[in-house]
Design brief:
heterotrimer, A alpha+beta (about 350), B mainly alpha (about 500), C alpha/beta (about 325), A: about 350 residues, alpha+beta, five-stranded antiparallel β-sheet, about 35% strand, B: mainly alpha, MetI-like fold, about 75% helix
Chain lengths: ~350, ~500, ~325
């Protein structure tokens, strides 16, 4: 397996830059996810790694091999990549085995197809046509087909997008394990933050053709470099914060001393960092429950602080639910302070 | 490829440029030319309108209404494709001797062109995602409103291309208009060749015809707008629920039966009675050899047409812009030209190469050239329905170029290629003027035998040839009425993207 | 896939085989372009092949379309000989200088009125322009084509103005009476509302069906239509007065191409077609007139002398351009 290095990649489409100055390194054997909303350029990025789109500048390396420099590109058939497009892209006229063996040379075909059918557990469906398969089976066939050519790198484009939630988790785990077992370098693009965080070793957050933050799942979730980034990796409570006369920062939940020049800013808090309890405790503030969103495994409460009526507070609580609308309770903040200057004010 | 399609055009321009200025103005600006223009446009427009009405009504009935007798309605409404327009016209004249003039031509040409519209309309109806129809109904639209607002916009593109071919067919038809005495461009061109051997004058008139065709093609390009395939992301409803109409199905069926009576019954009745009157005089050997020749020549033509049409179809399906448009227009123009013009253009070109002149390959080439528009149309349509991602995947798997074409594109486009092949095959079987000029000497097809007998008014002797021609042409026609497997499965197989 | 491949291979093989089979030629063979239909010349050509041992590759077509094709082929024509149904098509080919002058011994067989004055083509059979009429409906026969301009004939007669035979007649009329008079006659005819047909046979059928009473046709159409229908018909031939343009005798004929490498074989064929034996067969089987002097006339027809044909140089019948312009001017084309 080999690493993937992209350096200052720019891709134009119809004269418009879709990917701009993008750099990323995926170490050998790692599973990276590019997370971004639809239209951010992530599919274009993936396709230029595959060689299906010619970039206008920048370099792409597979290990030591330079596959793309400026607009000089190695054609996709010479790159040995495993490409799993959205919705699988299975050949409708071929059956499962024929799809898997499509890129394999004749004399290896039987063995490789057998191995791959075993790998993805579709041995008994080898002669089915794609339209006779469920969505999950189609994805498995597409993955098997990509792995069959022993690719240097596997590229996955929203591989689980079309599946229902239960199947999705199961298949995701299966695919991740499979890729990790085989120590395959993989790059997946997705718009689903949970999918990216759970499966990938490295998550890259993409917006408007650029990668804004890049790191381990935990790092990008806990240490967003901007409120915008924070929103893209999970639910966020944004609170106004200003420096008061005493030079300490005041916001809804507390007042802390923080050095710096910023006068007016925003605090990013994850809802699960708000601790809720029916009894008052040290540094806790009283609040009224205004809304309860019940998700089963957890719930999200909307709260109005008695001491700070301008902003609502959101808290995620786990376990059995003991709160109802109108109830009085006590809250406190237990987590890092992430504070950012408000972009529109000095 | 464009150069091939442009052979007749270049020929006409060369011929036309040899004419002197005085005769040119004389030809183009006499009152008669205007009269011919008017007659031709009127005839083609009225036939277009009628065959649109007949074809789309039948298609809608066949697709949407539970009619009795299984696939008989569609077979009856498409089978007249197998009958050459000159045979149909002869049949009508012989049961109704006063049958003549403009409206007679409208009837005959409507009867023989509407199967084409029916076929195209049924095919595009079969491709429509039925969930959209259900969504339309659930949003409170009536059946008619669904037809107008959901179905029609999706059929428009293929239907208007089909109607363009009908229009061009009428422009180039000679059989019906000459027998019925309607002065269209094509008849005028023939008359000029026959009466004056004036090839230059005929070329000028042909160029005027081409001008008209260019105008119509440009109009269709505009009307058609951007070719977009509308995709629905919704789940797939494969079971399409037809409307139950109760007793009303009988009068509806009668519509189709009446059409079949006029377009199939009349020629069959006439030919069979003529055939029976003359059973002792049938030349079995020449009948068999003409059948064999017809099959060989039309197969060769159809295969060659597909070989030429595939790269063109790929070009048109993948690229848009000036060059593809030019290619498409020149192919369509070729379709508008009478067979005699194409024939003479190829005579002028191929007679320079004695080793190939008047051989089967040249005849096959003439067929390919004449009917390229039909082949390209259906190939392009089926190529456009192949998801581009499949080619991408194939490339990443190391399969590119011809191998990818053979393993991905060709099998997926196969149904469309087959349709194109059958259409060319069917039309080539019926072709006469180019066959007369370019067939190998002594090589008689069913069409030339029919011509030989009818040109000396031996209609009884023409009957067996005409019957055999209709029967063998009915075979590809019959296959055309079968549902295209790729259409019904297209959505579930991810062909439409 | 494999089946498609096999089909392609087989078709290509067949193509080559057929192409070679037909393309092959030996020295003792002639390529004939025949504007005369197989029915009326095929048996004669078959007998020639049998008697001479010369193989004929015969290409049938419409005379005028073949002429257009020949003009288009020019020097490259694979044909040795062109047999045409009428003099006009021969004249057009001769005008482009594609025929070689025939040897005198052939030309001398045929009277001057039935061959090109240049000697480039020679007549094979003759046919007379006549009027066919319904004997039950027509009591007073016209004696001149001018009678048809009378109001009494209005809407009762038919012509086939796009047909080569009618145009040959108009050309003859122009030569005999001059362009102005010919135009005059045509204008009056048009004013008299004739029924227009595509083919001579259709005129005879229309007379038989009682739709019209009279029509301008060639002499053999009454006989032919009756034979085709297998019964007696209500149409018989009549002749105009002696010397009337309506009695034009046109010929079918043949010419040999400059480019032919088989000149003497081609001459043999023409010679065969002009023997008294063959000419008699034409008369009895196709009901045409012989171009040789002193051969019997078709049964039930007057002799050429009795018809009183107008004297027209058939070579000049090629000049159809002005005829057509005239027909266009009066609105018949």
């Amino acid at each position: 397996m080999t690493s993937l290095e992209v350096h200052e990649l720019t891709v134009h489409f119809d004269g418009r830059p879709i990917v701009e100055n993008l750099s990323i390194v995926v170490p050998s054997g790692a599973f990276a996810a590019v997370l971004g909303p639809s239209g951010c350029g992530k599919t274009t990025f993936l396709r230029s790694i595959a060689g299906l789109i010619t970039p206008s500048s920048g370099t792409i390396r597979f290990g030591k091999q330079l596959v793309s420099i400026s607009s000089l590109v190695l054609p996709p058939n010479k790159r040995h990549i495993g490409y799993v497009p959205q919705e699988g892209g299975l050949f409708p006229h071929l059956n499962v085995a024929e799809n898997i063996g499509f890129g394999v040379s004749k004399n290896e075909k039987i063995d490789v197809v057998d191995e791959m059918l075993d790998l993805v557990g579709l041995k008994n469906l080898a002669t089915r046509k794609p339209y006779q398969l469920s969505g999950g089976q189609q994805t498995r066939v597409a993955l098997a087909r990509a792995l069959a050519i022993k690719p240097q790198i596997v590229l996955l484009d929203e591989p689980f997008g079309a599946l229902d939630a239960a199947l999705r988790n199961e298949l995701r785990e299966e695919v991740c394990n499979l890729l990790k077992e085989r120590k395959t370098t993989a790059l997946m693009v997705t718009h689903d933050r949970e999918e990216a965080l759970v499966s990938a070793d490295i998550v890259a957050l993409m917006r408007h053709g650029q990668i804004l933050q890049y790191g381990s799942s935990r790092n990008v979730y806990s240490n967003p470099i901007s409120p915008e980034i924070a929103v893209s990796t999970g639910d966020v409570l944004l609170l106004k914060a200003e420096r008061d006369a005493s030079k300490s920062i005041r916001f809804a939940l507390s007042q802390i001393d923080l050095k710096g020049e910023i006068e007016l800013g925003q605090l990013v808090i994850r809802p699960e960092e708000i601790i809720v309890s029916p009894e008052p405790s040290a540094a806790s503030l009283s609040a009224i429950v205004t809304k309860v969103d019940y998700y089963g495994h957890d719930a999200v409460l909307q709260l109005l602080l008695d001491s700070w009526p301008d902003e609502e507070i959101t808290a995620r609580i786990a376990g059995p639910l003991g709160f109802s609308v109108g109830q009085k309770l006590w809250v406190k903040h237990a987590g890092p302070i992430r504070w950012f200057e408000l972009p529109h004010k000095k | 490829m464009i150069a091939i399609a442009a052979i007749p055009l270049l020929y006409l321009i060369k011929r036309g440029s040899e004419i002197d200025r005085a005769s040119l103005t004389n030809l183009l600006f006499r009152d008669r030319t205007i009269e011919i223009y008017t007659t031709t446009i009127l005839l083609a427009s009225i036939v277009l309108l009628f065959s649109f009405i007949v074809g789309s009504t039948f298609a809608w009935l066949i697709y949407n209404v539970t009619l009795p007798f299984g696939s008989l309605p569609i077979i009856l409404s498409v089978l007249p494709l197998a009958i050459p327009s000159y045979v149909l016209t002869y049949a009508w004249i012989s049961i109704y001797p006063g049958f003549k003039g403009f409206w007679a031509a409208v009837l005959v040409l409507t009867l023989s062109t509407s199967p084409y519209v029916t076929l195209v309309a049924v095919a595009s109806l079969r491709r429509i995602d039925f969930t959209q129809v259900e969504a339309g109904r659930s949003l409170g639209l009536s059946q008619l409103a669904v037809l107008r607002r959901v179905i029609w916009p999706q059929m428009r593109v293929s239907l208007s291309a089909g109607l363009l071919l009908v229009f061009l067919y009428v422009l180039s038809d000679f059989g019906a208009v000459s027998l019925l005495g309607v002065n269209t461009f094509t008849r005028n061109i023939y008359t000029m060749y026959r009466a004056t051997f004036d090839r230059n004058g005929a070329a000028v008139i042909s160029l005027a015809l081409i001008l008209l065709a260019i105008f119509i093609i440009a109009l269709e390009f505009r009307l058609r707008g951007r070719r977009t395939v509308i995709k629905s992301n919704a789940g797939i409803v494969k079971t399409h629920v037809k409307i139950k109409v109760g007793w009303l199905r009988w009068p509806l069926l009668t519509l189709i039966f009446t059409y079949a009576l006029l377009a199939l019954g009349v020629p069959f009745w006439v030919l069979t009675t003529r055939f029976i009157q003359n059973t002792e005089n049938i030349d079995i050997t020449s009948l068999i050899s003409a059948t064999f020749s017809t099959v060989i020549a039309s197969f060769a033509g159809a295969i060659l047409a597909m070989a030429l049409a595939l790269p063109l179809g790929i070009l048109l399906a993948r690229r848009s812009g000036f060059i593809p448009k030019l290619a498409e227009s020149s192919i369509l123009l070729t379709h508008a030209l009478p067979g005699v013009v194409i024939g003479l253009a190829l005579v002028a070109l191929s007679s320079k190469f004695p080793w190939i002149y008047q051989t089967l390959p040249v005849l096959a080439f003439a067929y390919a050239l004449l009917f390229l528009a039909k082949a390209v149309g259906s190939i392009r349509a089926s190529l456009q329905r192949i998801a581009p991602i499949l080619n991408d995947v194939s490339e990443t798997l190391g399969i590119t170029g011809f191998a990818a074409f053979r393993r991905v594109t060709l099998p997926l486009a196969a149904p469309g290629i087959l349709i194109g092949f059958l259409l060319v095959l069917l039309t080539a079987m019926k072709e006469l003027p180019a066959t007369l000029m370019l067939r190998p000497t002594g090589f008689e097809t069913l069409a030339t035998e029919i011509w030989a007998a009818t040109s000396i008014s031996k209609f009884n002797e023409a009957a067996p040839y005409a019957l055999v021609l209709i029967i063998i042409a009915a075979i590809p026609t019959f296959i055309l009425t079968r549902p295209d497997k790729s259409d019904s499965q297209a959505q579930s197989e991810g062909l439409i993207q | 896939m494999r089946r498609i491949k096999a089909a392609i291979v087989i078709s290509l093989l067949l193509l080559t085989v057929t192409a070679c089979g037909i393309g092959g030629s030996d020295s003792q063979s002639l390529t004939v372009y025949s504007g005369r239909s197989e029915e009326f010349i095929g048996p004669f050509l078959a007998d020639f092949e049998a008697e001479s041992g010369i193989k004929l590759n015969i290409r049938y077509g419409d005379s005028a379309e073949l002429a257009a094709q020949i003009l288009e082929e020019g020097e490259n024509s694979p044909a040795d000989i062109f047999i045409s149904q009428d003099a006009g098509a021969l004249g057009a080919v001769a005008q482009d200088g594609l025929f070689k002058k025939l040897p005198d011994e052939l030309l001398s067989l045929v009277p001057a009125s039935f061959k090109a004055s240049s000697g480039q083509w020679v007549g094979l059979t003759g046919r007379a322009r006549v009027f066919a009429y319904d004997p039950r409906a027509v009591t007073t026969l016209p004696t001149s084509i001018d009678d048809l301009t009378e109001p009494s004939w209005s809407s009762k007669f038919g012509i086939a103005p796009t047909n080569a035979s009618f145009q040959a007649f108009v050309t003859a009329l122009r030569i005999i009476r001059g362009d102005e008079a010919a135009k005059n006659w045509l204008t009056k005819i048009v004013a008299n509302n004739p029924k227009l047909f595509e083919k001579n046979s259709q005129i005879v059928e229309a007379i038989d069906a009682g739709q019209i009473q009279l029509g301008l046709v060639n002499h053999y159409y009454t006989w032919e239509v009756s034979k085709a229908l297998g019964r007696e018909i209500n149409a018989v031939n009549g002749f105009f007065g002696p010397g009337d343009a309506g009695n034009l005798i046109n010929v079918s004929g043949a010419g040999v191409f400059n480019t032919s490498k088989n000149q003497s074989l081609a001459h043999k064929l023409i010679e065969y077609l002009l023997t008294e034996k063959t000419q008699k067969r034409f008369v009895s089987e196709t009901h045409e007139y012989s171009v040789l002097p002193n051969v019997i006339t078709p049964s039930g027809q007057p002799t050429l002398k009795e018809i009183g044909a107008p004297i027209v140089n058939l070579d000049s019948l090629k000049d159809l351009k002005q005829t057509q312009e005239l027909l266009i001017k009066v609105g018949l084309l």
